[in-house]
Amino acid sequence: MKKYMNHAVLRYYYNEIKESDDAQSVVDDFWLNVLLSYFRGDLNFGVESARSLPEIIVHCADCTIRPIRYGDSMGIRYVTFVEGRQRSSEAQWSDWETALAQLTEYLKLVRTESAKKHEQTLYGAACIGRYTRFYQLNPSDQQCVNYPGTSGNLLELAEDESMIHKILSEIVEKTSG
């Protein structure tokens, strides 16, 4: 089942990502629109603006985070995307390792904000150019693990759309309510 690539604007962003090595804002725009279609306001989610990583986390010049909040003023965050946006980094394993390290450190930081979060599985993804990898940080763990069923595989935005759709739908279900 395909979902998000049915939207003309997302196909536009995807094509822009494919054509440009320096597609920073286009990658941000693509993910913002995808995430808004899954983590909807009527389901009590809020997709927050992309921001730089906190200074206490190893810094990547081209990485941002996009937190997704669920719930009331307690500000419980379940899902975080780390975006390393340069297409030239898609095949560089060291960039994927850096993105995973930053995602892990950020989720651990989020977990320390509230005792309630220690009991929850936190979800995240590392996104570089046209590819993404999904992870989760289980309660009491100190390292993210591959999201179930992904085996740590790189998922290409168009070619693996059905799998990405399935994962995003599962995360919405797991984190809502």
Helices and strands in order, then pairings?
Layout: H1 8-19, H2 24-38, E1 45-47, E2 51-52, E3 63-70, E4 77-84, H3 93-112, E5 122-128, E6 131-137, E7 145-146, E8 155-156, H4 161-175
Name its key features:
alpha+beta; 177 residues; eight-stranded mixed β-sheet; 4 helices
Mean pLDDT: 80
The global form is globular
- Tell me the fraction of residues in β-strands, as a range: 15-25%
Order of helices and strands: HHEEEEHEEEEH
Span of the ends, CA to CA: 25 Å
Q: Which structural category do the helix and sheet elements fall into?
A: alpha+beta
Count of helix runs: 4
Q: Give the uncertain stretches in residue-range form.
A: none
Please bin the fraction of helical residues.
25-40%
Evaluate the radius of gyration: 15 Å
> How many DSSP E strands?
8
Largest sheet: 8 strands, mixed
Describe this structure in words.
This protein has 177 residues and is α+β, with helices and mostly antiparallel strands. Helices cover 35% and strands 22% of the residues. The protein is built from four helices and eight strands. Strands 1, 2, 3, 4, 5, 6, 7 and 8 form an eight-stranded mixed beta sheet that branches. α1 runs antiparallel to α2. The longest helix has 20 residues. The model has no long low-confidence stretch (mean pLDDT 80).
